[in-house]
User: Which sequence fits this backbone?
C-alpha cells in the first residue's frame, strides 16, 4: 500500500512540473514561473506532511524521489560553479581597459562585504537583546545534545587556526584540489588563480601579442560555451524550487518551531532589518530600491529554498549582469567572493545572536561595550572564508564562540529550527553579494543605468 502512495506522490510532482512546462510554453515570465513553483512547493509539502506525517516511510521515500529533481538541480548548479567562476574572471580581466581597475574592484567588493557583515552583527546583537534570548530557556533533548557534542568535536579543526593561517588558506597550493571544492575556501582560491592567469595574459600581451590574442580567443570561446550551459541549467529553476520547497515544508519540525518560536521570530526580525538596510544603501547610492528588489527576488527565492550561496552563483551573476546592469567582471567577482566572504546571515547575524544568547549561561553580560566591540571585530575578521554551502554558519559560529571564550556546545540547542533559519540567512547572504556588485559598479561608474531601470530586463536572465 505504501508503494501506491509513493507512486501517487511522485505522479503529483510530475504533473506540477508539467504545469510549469506548460507555463513556459505559454511564455509566462521567468519570475512568474519561479514564484509559481515556490507556491506549489509550499502547498504540496504542507499537504504531504498533513497526510503522512514527518517520520512515515511514505514521506521518507517520497522526499527521496523528490530529491532527484531538487538536489539534482543544485548539483547541476554546483557542477558549473567552478568553470563559470574561473573562465568568467579570466575573461573579465583580459578585457579590462586598465589593469588598475582590478585592485579597485577587489578592494570595494571585499570592503563592502566585510563592512556589511559587521553591521549585520550589530543587528543580530540588537535583535537578541530585544527578544531577551537566553540559552538556559531551551531544554536540551538527545538530538540537541548530540548536535552540541558534534560541534565540540569540530572545534579542534578551527580553534587552532590563527588569522594569518585563515588568510593563508585562501592561497591555492593545488588548483585541481580546489576545482573539486574540497576546502571551504576553494572558491576564493579559484578566484585568486583566475586573477593570476588574467594578469599574466595582460603581461603576455605586451611581449607576445600573438600568443595572448590566441589565448584570449580561446577563453572567449570557452566562456560562450559555459554561459550557454548556465542558460540551459537556469531554465530548470522553477522545477528545482518546486521540489526543494516541497521537501523542506514536508519535513519541517513544526513542534520544534512552535517550541522555539521566539528564537525563529528574533532571527527573522534581524534578517528583515538587515535586508531593509541593504535597500536603504541602494537608495543612498541614487538607485531605486524597489526596482532592485523586483529584479533580485527570483534569485533570492532560489537561495531561500536551496540554502546554498555557492549554488546560487550562476543565478547571481546572470541577474547582476542582465537585470541590474552590473559590469560582467564586477558581477563575477562579487558573486564569487560573496559566496565565502562577509556573509551577512551566516557569518554576521547568526554568530552574533548565538554569542548574546549563550553569554549569560557563563555569567557574562553580553551588552557591555567591551563585549559588543570585541564580538563585532571578531565577526568582521572571521567572516572570511565561510563556506557557501550548508554548514557555513556552523563554521562561523565555532570560530566566533571559541574566540569569545563561550561554550560552543550550546549552539546545538537550535538544531530543530536550523533549517528554517538557514533559509533566510542564505537569502540575505546572496542579497549582500548582489548589493555589493551593484554598489561597486555604481561607485566605479560601470553600472548600466538603462538596464537597471528597464523593467523588462528581469526577463532576460534565461534568454538564449
Assistant:
Amino acid at each position: 500500500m505504501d508503494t501506491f502512495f509513493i507512486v501517487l506522490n511522485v505522479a503529483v510532482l510530475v504533473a506540477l512540473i508539467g504545469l510549469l512546462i506548460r507555463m513556459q510554453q505559454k511564455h509566462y515570465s521567468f519570475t512568474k514561473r519561479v514564484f509559481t513553483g515556490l507556491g506549489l512547493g509550499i502547498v504540496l509539502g504542507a499537504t504531504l506532511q498533513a497526510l503522512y506525517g514527518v517520520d512515515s516511510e511514505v514521506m521518507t521515500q517520497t522526499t527521496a524521489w523528490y530529491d532527484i529533481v531538487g538536489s539534482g538541480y543544485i548539483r547541476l548548479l554546483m557542477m558549473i560553479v567552478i568553470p563559470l567562476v574561473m573562465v568568467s574572471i579570466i575573461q573579465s580581466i583580459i578585457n579590462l581597459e586598465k589593469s588598475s581597475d582590478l585592485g579597485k574592484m577587489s578592494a570595494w567588493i571585499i570592503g563592502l562585504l566585510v563592512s556589511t557583515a559587521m553591521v549585520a552583527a550589530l543587528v543580530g546583537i540588537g535583535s537578541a537583546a530585544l527578544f531577551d534570548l537566553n540559552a538556559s530557556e531551551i531544554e536540551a533533548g538527545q538530538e540537541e545534545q548530540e548536535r552540541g557534542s558534534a560541534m565540540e568535536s569540530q572545534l579542534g579543526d578551527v580553534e587552532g587556526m590563527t588569522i594569518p593561517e585563515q588568510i593563508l588558506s585562501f592561497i591555492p597550493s593545488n588548483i585541481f584540489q580546489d576545482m573539486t571544492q574540497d576546502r571551504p575556501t576553494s572558491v576564493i582560491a579559484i578566484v585568486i588563480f583566475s586573477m593570476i592567469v588574467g594578469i599574466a595574459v595582460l603581461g603576455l600581451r605586451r611581449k607576445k601579442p600573438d600568443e595572448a590574442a590566441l589565448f584570449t580567443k580561446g577563453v572567449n570561446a570557452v566562456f560562450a560555451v559555459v554561459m550557454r550551459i548556465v542558460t540551459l541549467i537556469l531554465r530548470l529553476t522553477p522545477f528545482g524550487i518546486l521540489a526543494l520547497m516541497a521537501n523542506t515544508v514536508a519535513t519541517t519540525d513544526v513542534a520544534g518551531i512552535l517550541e522555539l518560536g521566539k528564537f525563529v521570530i528574533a532571527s527573522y526580525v534581524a534578517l528583515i532589518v538587515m535586508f531593509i538596510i541593504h535597500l536603504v544603501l541602494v537608495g543612498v547610492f541614487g538607485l531605486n530600491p524597489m526596482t532592485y528588489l523586483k529584479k533580485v527576488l527570483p534569485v533570492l527565492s532560489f537561495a531561500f529554498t536551496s540554502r546554498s550561496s555557492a549554488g546560487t552563483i550562476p543565478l547571481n551573476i546572470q541577474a547582476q549582469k542582465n537585470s541590474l546592469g552590473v559590469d560582467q567582471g564586477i558581477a563575477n567577482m562579487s558573486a564569487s567572493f560573496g559566496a565565502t566572504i562577509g556573509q551577512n546571515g551566516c557569518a554576521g547575524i547568526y554568530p552574533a545572536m548565538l554569542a548574546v544568547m549563550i553569554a549569560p549561561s557563563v555569567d557574562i553580560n553580553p551588552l557591555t561595550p567591551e563585549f559588543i566591540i570585541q564580538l563585532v571585530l571578531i565577526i568582521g575578521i572571521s567572516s572570511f572564508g565561510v563556506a557557501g554551502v550548508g554548514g557555513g554558519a556552523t563554521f562561523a559560529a565555532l570560530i566566533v564562540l571559541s574566540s569569545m571564550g563561550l561554550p560552543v556546545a550550546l549552539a546545538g540547542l537550535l538544531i530543530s529550527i536550523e533549517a528554517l533559519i538557514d533559509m533566510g540567512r542564505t537569502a540575505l547572504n546572496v542579497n549582500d553579494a548582489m548589493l555589493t556588485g551593484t554598489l561597486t559598479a555604481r561607485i566605479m561608474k560601470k553600472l548600466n543605468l538603462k538596464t537597471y531601470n528597464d523593467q523588462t530586463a528581469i526577463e532576460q536572465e534565461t534568454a538564449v
